[in-house]
Write a structure and sequence with these properties.
The protein has one domain: Aminoglycoside 3'-phosphotransferase, Chain: A, domain 2. Helices cover 50% and strands 14% of the residues. The protein is built from 13 helices and eleven strands. Strands 1-2-3-6-5 form a five-stranded antiparallel sheet, covered by helices on one side. A four-stranded mixed sheet has the order 4-10-9-7. The protein has a two-stranded antiparallel sheet with strand order 8-11. The radius of gyration is 20 Å and the shape is globular. The N and C termini lie far apart (48 Å).
Length: 356
């Protein structure tokens, strides 16, 4: 496999017939991830831009964290399924003329099996990640974004719920295990052996509930926003499994930012409530009320596990002070041992607590 960089991507594209010799090509590495090389390519004379993505075997974190590069094909497959579920065929055209709050995923343009890479459509230049906006305290549009994300995730879950064909397509959960269960849940069980029985119960729960497509990395850093639009990216741990992991994983990021913020805590926690209300409303009628209530209980448990994993797992959050990390550690340990009865109870505790 030829490892692609911003320096050699132009030569690669010409050699593969994706660009003409001598054609102006601008390549820039996109930052933010730890598991892939992600390059923005602009063919300036044509006015074309796309993203070139190639998997790496060693993730860029402090501790050793390996995963087979074949996961890139799982991402391609999951992107295509998500596009179908969201009704976003021909998304490149729709990106330019989309209705407000219309969710989308990138289109896969082409694949290079020899070099474990693929190309996909790029978001417009003016896009930003929702993580960037949240950390900047730019919350003016965040309620609408939270609602859109809730509807999007409910669509992906609900439209694939009990779908036997997708269950077969996304049956293999090895990449999810290597990139989520092991570095998150098994790692915190090692760091906190007194919680190992509860963490093992959480792993069993996640593994035993196979209900729908699970993105596995649904987080603000993977949600690109612009002019009311939301694009979901990074599908390499997509699988057929427990939607409670997606929910707990996503809500972890909002809760962490609420604990991080001194002045806007209630606003961040309001995003938790608005997301969950939109998600639950969109899923109602697709699955039973009993299933949704059970899903909420499992979501709280995954929220607790993911919170601790972002402190003592292999990919710790980088914007909390040591004191704030201790706060999250204490809270998540408490919740793993005795989970809150509902997301509303969990959100109210953080929003109203004076110790944070």
């Amino acid at each position: 496999m030829r490892e692609l960089t911003a320096d050699n991507a132009s030569e690669y594209l010409v050699a593969r017939g994706r660009a003409a010799p001598g054609e102006p090509i601008a390549v820039r590495e996109l930052t933010g991830g730890v598991s892939n090389a992600v390059l923005l390519v602009e063919l300036t004379d044509r006015g074309e831009r796309f993203v070139l993505k190639q998997a790496r075997g060693q993730l860029r974190v402090k501790e050793e964290w390996l995963c087979p590069i074949e996961r890139v094909w799982r991402e391609v497959e999951t992107l295509r399924i998500c596009g179908e579920l969201l009704g976003m065929q021909n998304s490149e055209r729709r990106i330019q003329n989309a209705e407000a709050s219309q969710p989308c995923v990138p289109d896969v343009l082409w694949e290079d099996r020899e070099n474990y890479c693929f190309a996909m459509t790029a978001a417009p230049p003016e896009h930003r990640t929702w993580k960037e906006l949240l950390l900047a305290g730019e919350l003016a549009d965040s309620v609408d974004i939270a609602k859109a994300c809730g509807k999007m995730l409910a669509t992906l879950h609900g439209a694939s719920w009990g779908n036997a064909d997708i269950a077969v397509q996304l049956d293999d959960r090895a990449f999810f295990d290597q990139l989520r269960i092991d570095p998150y849940y098994r790692q915190i069980a090692k760091v906190h052996p007194d919680l190992a029985p509860q963490v093992q119960q959480l792993i069993v729960s996640v593994w035993s509930h196979r209900l729908c497509l699970v993105h596995g990395d649904f987080s603000p850093k993977n949600l690109l926003v612009w002019q009311g639009q939301v694009m979901l990216i990074d599908c390499e741990v997509g699988h057929y499994g427990d939607p409670a992991f997606d929910l707990g994983f996503f809500l972890t990021h909002l809760v962490l930012k609420a604990i991080w913020s001194e002045l806007q805590r209630s606003m961040y926690m309001n995003l938790v409530s608005e997301f969950w209300k939109a998600y639950r409303h969109s899923l109602t009628g697709v699955v039973s009320a009993i299933e949704i209530d059970d899903l909420e209980r499992r979501t709280v448990s995954n929220l607790a596990g993911c919170l601790l994993a972002r402190i003592d797992g292999k990919s710790p959050v980088d914007y909390l002070t040591a004191a704030k990390r201790d706060v999250v550690r204490e809270l998540s340990r408490r919740w793993i041992a005795t989970p809150p009865r509902s997301l509303g109870e969990a959100a109210a505790f953080i929003a109203n607590s004076t110790e944070y």
